[in-house]
Amino acid sequence: VFIIDEINRGEVAKIFGELFYCIDPGYRGEKGRIATQYQNLVTSGEFQKGFFIPENVYIIGTMNDIDRSVESMDFAFRRRFSWIEVKSIDTVGMLDPKYDDNGELIAGLETDLADEAKRRMKNLNAEISKIEDLNDAYHIGASYFLKLKNYGGDSGKLWDYHIKGILQEYLRGNPKAQ
């Protein structure tokens, strides 16, 4: 499994190079074998006659679809991947506390803090949805609220250091939202 975070920020041709077509399901495995520009450096082994992407290799690319630095996505890129949207509401379970066998918190937030974070996340996202030109793609997800652990549950610090700035970026250049 290869995980490429924010895959849309890179140039697909530079990330995959000559292998781009090999990630297509129809060209996976030995039937998609190609000789790369560096083929002469391979002197033995399975890839001596060319390189291929085995059928059991999975490539997961994450992306933020509201990233203003990326305007469009190549159709060839879209064809080679499945697309699954993860909305902020889908992440709310990340806030639930998870404990190890010794009762130590290993993930999420303590119950009271998790409940408060969920309430604030819901209310904040409801307000974001009321702003013209913003929709649920702009909602704030649970990963922001998990930062409450770093601030001893101080939501003021979370607001000042993380949420306020992202909201200002959302609203910058939007005279209707000022």
Percent of residues in beta strands: 5-15%
Q: Strand pairing plus helix content: what structural class?
A: mainly alpha
**Low-confidence segments:** none
Strand order of the largest sheet: 1-2
Task: Give a count of the beta strands, DSSP E runs of length 2 or more.
Answer: 4
Q: How would you describe the oligomerization state of the chains in this entry?
A: single chain
Binned, the helix content reads 25-40%
Total helices: the number is 5
**What general form does the structure show?**
elongated
Largest sheet: 2 strands, parallel
**Radius of gyration, rounded?**
22 Å
How would you characterize this protein structure?
It is a single chain. The chain has 178 residues and is mostly helical. The chain is 29% helix and 6% strand. It has 5 helices and 4 strands, in the order E-H-E-H-E-E-H-H-H. It has helices spanning 12-16, 75-80, 111-129, 142-146, 155-171; strands at 2-4, 59-61, 98-99, 105-107. The strands form 2 sheets. The chain has a two-stranded parallel ribbon. A two-stranded antiparallel ribbon has the order 3-4. Strand 3 and strand 4 form a beta hairpin. The radius of gyration is 22 Å and the shape is elongated. 8% of the residues are buried. The model has no long low-confidence stretch (mean pLDDT 87).
Short description:
The chain has 178 residues and is mainly alpha-helical. The protein is 29% helix and 6% strand.
Labels describing this entry:
single chain; 178 residues; mainly alpha; two-stranded parallel ribbon; 5 helices
